[in-house]
Model the fold of this input.
Amino acid sequence: MAIATTGGAAAAFELKHTSLPLVSMLLKTTDLAALGDELASQLREAPQLFDQDPVAIDFSAVAGEAAPRMDLLLALLRSHRLLPVAALGGSAEQMAAAREAGLAEAPEAAPVSRAPRTAEPAMREVREVEVVREVEVVREVEVVREVPAPAQPALVVDKPLRSGQQVYARGGDLVVMAAVNHGAEVIADGHIHVYAPLRGKAIAGNRGNTAARIFATCFEPELIAIAGVYRTTETPLPADVLGQPAQVRLVDDKLVMDPLKT
Done:
């Protein structure tokens, strides 16, 4: 959809519908001091957890509470390397305050139709509903499905990582063929595979990918995190995974550790 300038000149810009990565932060409290303490704690444990990520603030869990000071909330998030751009799920008061603070109102995800796929008209209807949900279009427009860009190839590291070293696989998986020692840090937007002892920090799904997993042939990490949910050595690891081949996955916002059978 091009917007042409007057006088028949070339179009100055085009408006296109697209899908962009966006972190959704579900607030469970409007106590900004408590929120600040939790954000600071997570950044101390995982300094690369946030990297100027655009954020939609989800107020659905605190919709029954009074709206927080939006200017203070936005300043707090920005001070922890988050970029609040939208809000959703709040009460009328909360959403009005969010709009006044300059946040866009993000639409709720629409349920996908489960119409039968036996006939071509039904298939077409399902595809259209899925596309509208994907790009979050809430008005009548012509929607074209865009083919997702191919995933980034996995980053492979062959050498041991010493204390103070950090490796980040931006946009893809990370495969480490040697030990990740205490004080080292491995980060990936996708999965992390360590085919050696994992004794440092492992942060998978760095940009909010809740399907990301962590795999290690010898599981002894200082810290593990998936999509912002983390666990440190302050909580002892289960005996059936400590020092053993194991995987970590995210289930209902909780880290689940399973032994791997070899």
